[in-house]
Structure to design on (433 residues):
């Protein structure tokens, strides 16, 4: 699909989304699934397929009804000017919070895995400088970079899974019985919450072309994301057991450290760390693009590039002050962020979809 | 000292962007930039003066009364 200079295709949007999801997939999801559903944790992502597909259908319906408009315009059209702006401010705060939180997570992950003696602030500054630089070129370079790098990330995931497969123990993963249905539902909350970021991506929908194939690429993205999350959960719980996986700070890294190839090649966790850095970089950049787009919609600005440097400084302070220590942030993610994600990423879009169906369709683009 | 450094960085960031914006007469953009700068200064001041206790996560827990 050929795209214009500042436009991206819907396929590229889903590539970026898949890379965004890969960041919390390796950090949070195996731990959460092991804590909530124990040995059945690897099955829990399947439950998230249903709300995710419904979200894709709701977004597709909204975008078909209000052709050529961004999600901000659609919200303002459906809810009216005042209420629409209020909702956009809520989404702005959510996106800004996520950007600050993932910047902090990125830095904490590096200090807790490979650079324990380096200040958290230094990594944040080192991340924000290139991000501020790349933001000036818009979202297109990120989308194109993701399109190139996602196949490598996928291949790496499959290779790591193949190397670790001999270490998987069946008694760590079975039995999965009817009694596990409720824990599996609980374990799926985190996956559902993370996949809700898809709705945020559509605040960029005025920059996306070929939206008529949203459903097809949405189904493919659902399959790829759910299966890769299941694979990661399967490997981590299968190798470590659920009781260990939920107690280790970064279970994926601990599992990958166990890989040896014929007793010659070891310490390939550097590859995982490189993927993390890229995934976090994509996540933070995309969230900041969304923040800028929301500011543009709220204040009716013609250009937001002048805000980039100031926003980077604000995100630095927010990410430094988002938590006093990592434990607090993990506690927040597990207990409060997931309900917020589900409310803003699923409940509100479904309400919007219902309101759009109730509203008269006379000249919706006005 | 940290507050002084923060103020200098924010003033430089605003001034550097403000000059071309004023030349182009984009007053709304300039106002939003100043507002963002003010928010940064306010939160930055809070963070620097409460560096060991500043935690937005804790504030959120208090707001939603989860603790």
């Amino acid at each position: 699909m050929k795209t214009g200079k500042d436009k991206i295709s819907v396929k590229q949007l889903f590539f970026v989304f898949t890379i965004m999801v890969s960041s919390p997939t390796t950090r949070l999801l195996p731990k959460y699934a092991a804590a909530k559903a124990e040995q059945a944790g690897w099955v829990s992502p399947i439950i998230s397929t249903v709300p995710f597909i419904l979200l894709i259908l709701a977004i597709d319906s909204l975008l078909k009804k209000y052709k050529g408009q961004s999600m901000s315009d659609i919200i303002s059209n459906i809810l009216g000017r005042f209420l629409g702006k209020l909702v956009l401010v809520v989404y702005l705060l959510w996106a800004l919070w996520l950007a600050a939180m993932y910047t902090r997570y990125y830095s904490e992950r590096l200090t807790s895995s490979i650079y324990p003696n380096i200040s958290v602030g230094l990594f944040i500054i080192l991340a924000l400088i290139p991000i501020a630089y790349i933001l000036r070129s818009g979202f297109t370079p990120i989308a194109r970079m993701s399109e190139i790098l996602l196949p490598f990330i996928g291949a790496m995931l499959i290779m790591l899974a193949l190397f670790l497969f001999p270490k998987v123990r069946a008694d760590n993963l079975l039995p999965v019985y009817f009694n596990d249905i409720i824990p599996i539902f609980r374990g799926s909350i985190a996956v559902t919450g993370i996949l809700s970021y898809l709705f945020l991506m559509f605040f960029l929908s005025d920059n996306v072309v070929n939206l008529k194939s949203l459903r097809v690429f949405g189904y493919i993205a659902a399959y790829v994301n759910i299966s890769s999350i299941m694979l990661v959960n399967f490997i981590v719980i299968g190798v470590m057991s659920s009781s260990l996986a939920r107690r280790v700070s970064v279970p994926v890294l601990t599992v990958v450290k166990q890989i040896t190839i014929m007793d010659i090649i070891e310490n390939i966790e550097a590859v995982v760390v490189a993927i993390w850095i890229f995934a976090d970089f994509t996540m933070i950049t995309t969230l900041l693009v969304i923040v800028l787009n929301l500011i543009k919609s709220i204040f009716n600005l013609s250009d937001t590039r002048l805000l980039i440097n100031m926003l980077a400084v604000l995100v630095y302070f927010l990410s430094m002050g988002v938590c006093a220590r990592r434990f607090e942030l993990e506690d927040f993610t597990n207990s409060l962020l997931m309900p917020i994600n589900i409310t803003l990423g699923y409940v509100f879009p479904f309400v919007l979809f219902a309101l759009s169906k109730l509203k008269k369709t006379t000249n919706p683009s006005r | 000292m940290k507050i002084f450094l923060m103020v200098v960085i924010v003033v430089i960031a605003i001034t550097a962007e403000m000059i071309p914006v004023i030349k182009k007469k984009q007053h709304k953009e300039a106002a939003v930039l100043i507002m963002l700068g003010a928010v940064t200064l306010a939160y930055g001041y809070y963070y620097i003066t409460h560096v060991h206790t500043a935690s937005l996560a804790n504030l959120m827990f208090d707001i939603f009364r989860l603790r």
